[in-house]
Design goal:
Layout lengths: L1 H24 L9 H11 L8 E2 L12 E3 L5 E3 L9 E6 L6 H14 L10 E6 L6 H15 L8 E4 L3 H11 L1 E2 L1 E3 L4 E5 L1 E5 L5 E6 L5 H12 L13 E2 L11 H46 L1
Parallel strand pairs: 4-5, 5-6
Antiparallel strand pairs: 1-7, 2-3, 4-10, 8-9, 9-12, 10-11
């Protein structure tokens, strides 16, 4: 009875989750014959709120190392100051983001914590705000909380949280393939989540999408980037940051992604439960058969 109930729950979850999951997957873009076809196909699948927003892999593209910013201490810097002879982990976020950006920074800190390389010695970390209205004070607050999560205060010198003017921010974002837009209705930025690893000479080397980054892959990417090697393209599964719109009654893309993830997790848990029950039944059958045969022999 319980087994039948679990199977029914799986079927219900499939009916509810699969139509939703199918919307962002759309493999047609990955099968497009040219990059232009892929971009056009992907754009046609996006809801209107996310048109023109993404994180495209521009492997080998040079970042504008002369772009000028202000660091968390209020000191004027250029992007090139952080490259020198080490690779760079670059995150494009904004510090007052209520949703995705905090997850990106937390995921970055958690992943790097498991990597046997040291910020400030083996690589540098640059976090750039896409909001030109944000201040060094906000950058310092974000840096403090992120380094605390990383758990190694003595590496703070390898973490750099920057703010800057719109034109300079756009130069870096465009070179990185990071497109975003400001939504005046919500006073928030619509953007995707992920990280870019750049080589020591300032070229895009590897991309990581979402909010969780496998430490093994990150370490490999840093080692490659330290030798100025460019990695291979990866499957792009984007998480977008956008707010619930009460005027339309639609959930944001970020919430929908969480719902989809929850659906898959539910399926996984139910599948494991059913598998255990099936194995238990199979193990009990021989014992039941032997008991029955023993009773018959006795009789």
């Amino acid at each position: 009875m319980i087994r039948r109930l679990l199977i029914a729950l799986v079927l219900v979850t499939l009916v509810v989750a699969l139509p939703t999951v199918a919307q962002p997957a759309q493999p047609a873009a990955s099968r497009a014959t040219t990059p232009a076809d892929a971009r056009q196909a992907t754009a046609s699948q996006m809801p209107p709120e996310l048109q023109g927003v993404g994180f495209e892999q521009r492997l080998g593209e040079s970042l504008p190392l002369d772009a000028r910013f202000t660091d968390e201490s209020g000191v004027a810097v250029t992007l090139g100051e952080y490259f020198d002879d080490r690779p760079v982990v670059l995150a494009l976020v904004y510090y007052d983001c209520p949703m995705l950006c905090g997850l990106v920074l937390n995921g970055m800190a958690s992943s790097l914590k498991a990597v046997e390389l040291t910020p400030g010695e083996d690589f540098e970390i640059v976090v750039l705000s896409i909001d030109p209205g944000e201040t060094p004070e906000m950058a310092m607050e974000a840096k403090t909380s992120t380094v605390e999560r990383y758990g190694k205060a003595d590496t703070a010198g390898g973490w750099h949280f920057l703010t800057g003017e719109e034109e300079e921010i756009r130069r870096v974002a465009d070179a990185a393939g990071f497109t975003y837009r400001y939504d005046s209705r919500t006073d928030l930025y619509v953007h995707a989540g992920g990280l870019l690893l750049a080589t020591a000479d300032g070229r895009a080397a590897r991309y990581f999408y979402g909010v969780e980054y496998p430490p093994r892959d990150v370490r490999l990417g840093l080692v490659e980037a330290s030798d100025n090697r460019i990695g291979s393209p990866v499957d792009r599964v984007l998480l977008f940051c956008f707010q619930y719109d009460p005027s339309t009654g639609k959930y944001s893309a970020a919430v929908l992604n969480l719902i989809r993830a929850g659906g898959f997790l539910t399926l996984l848990v139910l599948g494991l439960l059913i598998g255990r029950m099936i194995l238990r039944e199979r193990r009990q059958r021989p014992r039941s058969d032997n008991t029955a045969k023993s009773n018959l022999g006795t009789a």
